């Protein structure tokens, strides 16, 4: 949100012309309309070097960035020319799958910039490689050098492509991964394991009946470092259970295929046939992910240290059902969820807990958990977590800026009255649009136009870009169009029109037969009193009574409406009658013009 506000400020000062001095991360937040056509190619080339993870994949802001870049580069269909691909940089990662084969071999180098591809993009990439019409040639001709030159693209190869690679090339590549494994960080190790397992699966598919010789154990003593070079059959036959338990961490620090991991798990279970002691649970590492939900339900997970060790992301991914069972077991044995544990669990898995389990989470744990993404939670769970967050951050309520920063991830569970209080603190909240769109739809409908204006603050113009989303459409439909025009002024359409030509005492204005100039709070009711002898040629002055509307502007200046009376003139020589104040006649409602008064703008939030 801060980067978005800063980008808007720089654009307002016309500093996009000097974007070369700005960090690429900041350029991601500029609106396409703020980038002049003459510099847009260079602009998007620099922006693409920013951290795209700042814009979640699939978010409207990230999609807008790609649309702006494609428009700037003159892309009309699926095919992109090499120069266009070069200007897109990492933005190519968000292209539709059809653009990969349509753009041809030139797209491959650009795809190496992508930290990950969607399933459809991977399929398109493999289809392009299988044509053999690339710099890498036909997969059957690939060797170790080719596989290394593919770089990160090798992670996207499917079994069809890998099965065509010569067995010798696959084995050479596997050995190169094993050799580099010990010097890699956690993220790279995870990728290496994925590759090892993929290559092992390809070998098994290529030779389903081939059994490697396992008639004898290696002549040299087995060490942890030799584990990756043993076949699964040799591991099963030759690895001592006692050696495994004594050197478990060192063994698991090696790159291990899925089949070998299953054999190691079996040997651990043989050592502890009835129950794995809690101190040994902490040491299971990646093997823990191989246990079923039923097996996990018997674990002695009593301490937060054990649970934390098991949840460590460096040991591989858990299935959601496994995590739920693990947490259920921990809570059933009297454990309590702390802030650090909640961070390791993560918001997505937190949402998988039962409502009764979420109710057990202390408010102070939410307060120390940091930013949790609970967008996948049910509405009931969002409301539960919001209530706990509200309690945890109650001491910050007098400082709206810091309070909003802490409560923001949980606002999807906030009631309308709390959102209204946040909007009317007198301090600009500048709620980002992703948070706004994640509010409870039922509660959002209860917010007034002014509430929304105050909540969004400097981000209000972005609301126009999401006017077709169901949430915004349904809210706009129940607002007066005049308020949308006058209070927001961003061009939202589809609000309620004030009826014309019918009696409407709720929102009366000056009658058509009266000419007046008045200052009113919202809509003016004009009251006159009839005089029995008043000729039609006399136009009385109006007495105006103001009626405040709680959700509209504090003061409005109405413009005079010159009106010609349709009453025929009086006969010549009629009596002259002094001006009188007639009684009220039914008021006709007309759409009033926008006020010249501006709604008060809250002060900027300070932290």
TrEMBL record:
InterPro entries: Mesothelin, Stereocilin-rel. The keyword Methyltransferase does not apply. Keywords: Cell adhesion, Glycoprotein, Membrane, Signal. Pfam families: Mesothelin (PF06060). One of its GO terms (biological process) is cell-matrix adhesion. GO terms for cellular component: cell surface; membrane. Residues 499-520, 574-593 have a biased composition (Low complexity). Residues 498-520, 552-607 are annotated as: Disordered. Belongs to the mesothelin family. This is MSLNL protein. It comes from Myiagra hebetior.
């Amino acid at each position: 949100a801060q980067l978005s506000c800063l980008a808007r400020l720089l654009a307002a000062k016309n500093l996009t012309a000097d974007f070369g001095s700005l960090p690429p991360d900041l350029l991601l937040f500029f609106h396409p309309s703020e980038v002049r056509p003459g510099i847009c190619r260079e602009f998007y080339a620099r922006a693409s070097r920013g951290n795209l993870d700042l814009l979640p994949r699939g978010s409207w802001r990230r999609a807008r960035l790609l649309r702006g870049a494609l428009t700037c580069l003159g892309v009309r269909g699926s095919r992109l020319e090499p120069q266009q691909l070069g200007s897109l940089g990492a933005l190519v990662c968000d292209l539709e799958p059809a653009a990969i084969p349509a753009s041809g071999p030139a797209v491959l180098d650009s795809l190496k910039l992508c930290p990950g591809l969607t399933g459809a993009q991977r399929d398109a990439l493999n289809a392009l490689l299988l044509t053999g019409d690339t710099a890498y040639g036909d997969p059957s001709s690939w060797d170790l050098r080719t596989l290394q030159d593919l770089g990160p693209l090798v992670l996207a190869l499917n079994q069809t492509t890998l099965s065509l690679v010569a067995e010798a090339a696959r084995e050479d590549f596997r050995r190169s991964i094993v050799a580099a494994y010990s010097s890699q960080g956690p993220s790279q190790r995870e990728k290496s394991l994925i590759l090892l397992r993929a290559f092992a699966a390809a070998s098994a598919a290529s030779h389903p009946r081939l059994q490697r010789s396992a008639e004898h154990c290696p002549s040299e003593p087995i060490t942890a470092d030799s584990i990756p070079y043993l076949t699964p059959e040799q591991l099963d036959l030759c690895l001592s259970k006692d050696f495994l338990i004594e050197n478990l961490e060192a063994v698991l620090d090696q790159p291990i295929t899925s089949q070998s991991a299953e054999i190691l798990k079996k040997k651990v279970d043989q050592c502890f046939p009835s129950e794995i002691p809690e101190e040994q649970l902490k040491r299971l590492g990646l093997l823990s992910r191989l246990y079923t939900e039923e097996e996990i339900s018997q674990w002695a997970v009593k301490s937060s240290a054990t649970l934390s060790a098991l949840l460590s992301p460096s040991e591989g991914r858990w299935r959601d059902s496994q995590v739920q069972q693990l947490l259920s077991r921990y809570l059933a044995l009297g454990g309590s969820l702390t802030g650090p544990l909640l961070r390791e669990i993560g918001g997505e898995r937190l949402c998988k807990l039962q409502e009764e389990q979420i109710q057990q989470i202390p408010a102070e744990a939410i307060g120390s958990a940091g930013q949790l993404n609970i967008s996948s939670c049910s509405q009931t769970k969002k409301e539960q977590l919001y209530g706990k967050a509200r309690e945890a951050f109650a001491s910050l309520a007098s400082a709206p800026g810091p309070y909003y920063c802490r409560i923001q991830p949980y606002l999807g569970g906030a009631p309308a009255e709390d959102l209204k209080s946040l909007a009317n603190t007198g301090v600009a909240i500048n709620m980002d649009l992703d948070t706004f769109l994640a509010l409870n739809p039922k509660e959002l409908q209860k917010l007034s136009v002014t509430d929304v204006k105050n909540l969004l603050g400097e981000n209000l113009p972005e609301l126009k870009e999401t006017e077709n989303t169901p949430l915004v459409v349904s809210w706009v439909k129940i607002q007066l169009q005049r308020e949308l025009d006058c209070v927001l002024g961003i061009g939202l359409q589809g609000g309620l029109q004030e009826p014309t030509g019918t009696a409407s005492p709720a929102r009366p204005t000056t009658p058509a037969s009266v000419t007046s100039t008045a200052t009113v709070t919202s809509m003016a009711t004009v009251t006159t009193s009839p005089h029995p002898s008043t000729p039609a040629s006399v136009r009385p002055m109006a007495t105006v009574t103001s009626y405040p509307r709680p959700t509209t502007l504090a003061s409005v200046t109405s413009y005079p409406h010159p009106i010609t009376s349709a009453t025929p003139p009086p006969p010549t020589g009629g009596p002259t009658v002094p001006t009188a104040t007639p009684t009220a006649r039914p008021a006709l409602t007309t759409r009033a013009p926008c006020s010249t008064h501006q709604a008060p703008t809250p002060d900027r939030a300070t932290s």
